[in-house]
Specification:
Layout (H helix, E strand, L loop, with lengths): L3 H50 L5 H11 L10 E7 L26 E11 L4 H7 L2 E10 L14
Antiparallel strand pairs: 1-2, 2-3
Helix pairs in contact: 1-2
Amino acid sequence: MIRSKDRKGQSMVEFALILPVFILLMVGVFDFGRAIYAYNTINNAARQGARLAIVDQTIPHVQERAASEAVSLGIEPDDVTVDFRDMTTPNVANSCTAEVPGDSNNSGGIVFCIAVVTVEFDYDPVTPVIGNILGSLTLVGESQFKVDFNCEGPQCPRGE
C-alpha cells in the first residue's frame, strides 16, 4: 500500500519536470505576441509613409513620417527605404524616370508612378532558447500607392 507521503514526493517531481516546459511555452507565447506587434507596427509605418509620399515626394519627409509612426520600436529614418516605380515595371526599384525632390538622379513628372515605402526592423526574441534557434529576425513592412500629386512649386513640400 502506498502512503500519502510518497505521493507528495511524486507530485513535486512531476511539477519540477513540467514547470520549465510550461514557463518556456508561456514566454514563447509572449515572444510571438511581441513579433506580431512589431510586424503590425512596421506595416502601419510603411503605410503612413506611403500615404505621405503620394502628395509629398520629398524622401527625407517620408522617412521621418514612417519612423515617427514606429517610435515604440526605435525605428530610425535610415531604416526606411523610399523609391518610386514606373507602373509598367512595378517590381523594379527606382524605375520611375520622373523627378523626385531630393533625388538628383531623376527628371520629369512623377504622377502615375508608384510610391513604395519599405520599413525594416530586426526582431530579437526574449526567450533564450527561441533566440538561439531562430536568431535575429528581419521583419519587413512594405506599402505601395500610386502618386496622385506632383509636388512642385511654392506649395511643396506638403508633408510638414
